[in-house]
Amino acid sequence: MDKISVNYEEEIGKTVGRRKAPASGISSAGLQQTGAALFQKWGKGMPKGVYRYQSHEEADRDLMRNIVRVK
Fold it and tell me: Which residues in 1-71 belong to E strands, given as ranges?
């Protein structure tokens, strides 16, 4: 086998695996914190389950009633 020679004095041109978070990631973290704070203050909104409505207007009315409801 051939011997591999390594030059320890050589400058490394590129480091692999060290990424910085993009600026959009920082702003989205702020939005996520805001959403979590709103969730704690106002709750979930609609209770879980399957809902069947006769019309879109009836579904919208029920959605608005549950969103506006203060807990």
Answer: none
Mean pLDDT of the chain: 78
Retrieve residue 59's tokens: 């579904």
pLDDT digits (tens, 9 = 90+) for 11-67: 877 767 767 766 776 778 888 888 888 777 766 666 678 889 999 999 999 888 877
- Residue indicated by tokens 């409505």: 53
4 token code pair = 């591999």
What is the greatest pairwise CA distance in the chain? 79
What CA–CA distance (Å, rounded) separates 30 from 39? Answer: 14
Torsion of CA 54, 66, 38, 71, to 10 degrees: -160
Q: Which two tokens stand for residue 68?
A: 């506006």
